[in-house]
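REVIEWER CHECKLIST
Item 1: Sequence provided? yes
Item 2: Single chain? yes
Item 3: Sequence as submitted:
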Amino acid sequence: MTTKPKKKTSHTAMPIKSLEELMRWKRYIRDHYNQREYLFVELALDTGTFPASLLDLKWDDLKSEECDFPAVVRYYFLLPREIQSPQKYKHVISNRTFELLKELRKQFPNDVYIFQTQSPNTSKKPPKPWSIAYIGRILRESALAAGLKETISPLTLRKSYGYHMVVHGTWTLRQLQQRFGQPRLSTTRKYINITNEPIIEDSLD
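Item 4: Structure as written out by the authors:
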């Protein structure tokens, strides 16, 4: 009897744990790919959003709000914590990411989607965003060229965001669990591949 191969899960893709390697990968994409492809990586690492949700983003989804203290304007997207979840979470973006968005918008003022396909539209078909297969190929090719050894998929970006927020940032594992909408701390720990790294699991309050 032939044994069927195990189906790959989202846990197959690993986070890039080395900040040096992660920055090298980003620089390679910035220098060798187009502005929109680099923006996808920047936005994914800035927000930890599901790749499929990023691909569905329209320019009209970009919102702003004024803050009293400090007196600044923040920009954000309202996106689900999980795929097919009705609950949405405010994904605030950094000033750097917003500037990249502004530059892209100047080049493509009539686009509907932020990550819109740019093939000739001679048949008047409605615009559509990139496929997950397209961005997956870009990420795998660029990671290989940049010398990364990890298994790469679009979820690598989300997992890398989570890993560095907990290991090198100020978040507890509980905060990341809530941010990702996952049911248990053990799920989040496995998702971002925490092994023996010193982290804070929960707040002491």
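Item 5: Key structural point noted by reviewer: Residues 3-11 have pLDDT under 50 and may be disordered.
Item 6: Recommendation: ____
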